[in-house]
């Protein structure tokens, strides 16, 4: 329930509404309006490659070697973003904060980016879409990306003074997500309404389980 409702203090309760899809309570790190086939990829690791594993020491002997290493990182990052673009990926959802070079090449290739998703949001998106996180740093980054979801839309959404991300997924299951926008004069009132609604939904869920039995 926490991922399927958003609180908006400072507005009358009558402004509350239900929106189709998911509302992520953060802004785009990069936003590139897109239409047509909206492919979405989920990642849980930085897309900027590293020169060595965390437990391995990487020794640079000269300035030339250091610059060559930076150039390799840049080329590799650009190659990953080109690969996403060639697979019609328009939206990158990341559980980690991506570095500026990733955001730069994402914008350059028309890919929107949302960062710092919670583990609960990642799990919910995986459940809705049926996809697993994409790992780009195998031996081959030229093939088809199979772990992509389809979105009907994604767009900025302003809730009060907070900028959010609104995404409508094509669900792979019978569950069609909707997000409840709860408005109220102060946070305390909204929390009371949210708790009451969650209790009502829990009761209905138990009732339907009893009927099914």
UniProtKB/TrEMBL annotation:
InterPro entries: BBS10 (IPR042619), GroEL-like_apical_dom_sf (IPR027409), TCP-1-like_intermed_sf (IPR027410). One of its GO terms (biological process) is chaperone-mediated protein complex assembly. Gene3D superfamilies: GroEL, TCP-1-like chaperonin intermediate domain. This is BBS10 protein. It comes from Brachypteracias leptosomus (short-legged ground-roller). The lineage of its organism: Eukaryota, Metazoa, Chordata, Craniata, Vertebrata.
């Amino acid at each position: 329930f926490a991922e399927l409702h958003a609180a908006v203090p400072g507005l009358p309760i009558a402004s509350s509404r239900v929106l189709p899809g998911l509302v992520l309570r953060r802004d785009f790190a990069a936003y590139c309006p897109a239409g047509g086939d909206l492919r979405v990829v989920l990642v849980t690791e930085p897309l900027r490659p590293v020169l060595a594993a965390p437990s391995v020491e990487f020794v640079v002997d000269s300035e030339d070697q250091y610059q060559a290493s930076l150039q390799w990182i840049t080329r590799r990052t650009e190659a990953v973003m080109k690969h996403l673009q060639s697979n019609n990926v328009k939206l990158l959802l990341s559980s980690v904060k991506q570095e500026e070079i990733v955001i730069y090449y994402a914008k350059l290739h028309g890919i929107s980016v949302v960062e710092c998703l919670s583990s609960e949001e990642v799990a919910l998106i995986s459940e809705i879409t049926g996809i697993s996180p994409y790992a780009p740093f195998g031996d081959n980054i030229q093939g088809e990306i199979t772990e992509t979801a389809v979105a009907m839309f994604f767009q900025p959404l302003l809730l009060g003074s907070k900028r959010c991300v609104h995404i409508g997924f094509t669900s792979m299951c019978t569950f069609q997500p909707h997000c409840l926008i709860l408005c109220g004069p102060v946070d305390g009132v909204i929390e009371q309404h949210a708790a009451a609604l969650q209790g009502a939904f829990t009761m209905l869920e138990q009732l339907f389980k009893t009927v099914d039995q």
